[in-house]
Amino acid sequence: TSSSLDVPNSMSSTDLASFRKMAMGALPDLLRACRSTATEYAGCEAVFVVLSRADEWIDNEWAKILQSTKSDANISLNDSSPKLSAQIRKLLARKLIYSHHIIAKTKRKAIGDLAREYNLGGYAKIGWPGIIIIEGEEGDCNSFIDEIRSMRWQHLVVRGEESEEIGASNSVDGNLDSLDDFRKFPNKMTELAEDQMSYLSEICRDVGLEDLFMTSMKIYKQADDGNDENVGGANSGTPQEVDNEALFGTLVLVDHMNDKKGYTKWIHKACKSSGCSCMVKRCFQNDDCSLRPIIFVGIVGDETSVRKVLKRWRTSRVDVDSKGNPCLERMKKVMAEGQAFADFSEEDSTPSLPRDGSSSDIIYLKDLESVLASVGGLSWVDVLKDTIRSKTSN
Question: pTM for the complete prediction?
Answer without folding.
Answer: 0.45
